[in-house]
Amino acid sequence: MAKGDLLLGLDVSTKTIGIALFEDMGTKGKLKVLTHVTPKIKPKPETKIGELCEKARVFEDDFLKKYVDLGITRVIIEEPLLRSNNVNTVATLLRFNGIISRAVYETLNVVPEYISSYDSRAFAFPELMAIRTRNKKNEPYTEKEISKKNPTLFGAYDWTVDKKSVVYEKVAKLEPQITWLYNKKMVLTKENYDMTDAYVCVRATMKKDGLWK
Q1: Can you give the pTM of this predicted structure?
Q2: Cα(208)–Cα(191) distance, integer angstroms
Q3: Each residue of 158-191: pLDDT tens digit?
Q4: Which domains does the chain have, with CATH numbers?
């Protein structure tokens, strides 16, 4: 890709689609847009797949069609987490991910790429990789046990740390100009985490490819 090209990152959930648009500056990216689309479909379709198709249409109208002529050359989507006891939830998320991928291809004429949430965080913020020194009971491992361990994501944090909050804080530090979203109780809304996940998947992919520092 050429310097000046635009890259789009998406974090897709059935409620909200996090969106991050970057301009490639050569060795780094310049954030142009950080937003989200939360489709609210009324009246609600009779089937879940019908609802997902309508949500994808809203995403197309509210974002994709507005940016179709700007020169987006790469689209990176964070792969959905498949670790869930609810098979129906996983199946629904996979279907919606596929519907959004097709919408991207048909509207932007770009074949989406995918990155796992683990790789997304690990490559975007390699400093998050560390060897754990304590177990889930907060008991210290022995030196012998530690010597056999490899660095793992969030290894320096407590086992119960809110990982999305850590990622949000990293992004907020990199992009101090962003006005974040709060509810009436002045608590960060979930949409902020969808947006930061979209941000991170672009940053991670470009660093993984050796294109950004």
Answers
A1: 0.94
A2: 26
A3: 999 999 999 999 999 999 999 999 999 999 999 9
A4: 6-126+163-208 (3.30.420.10)
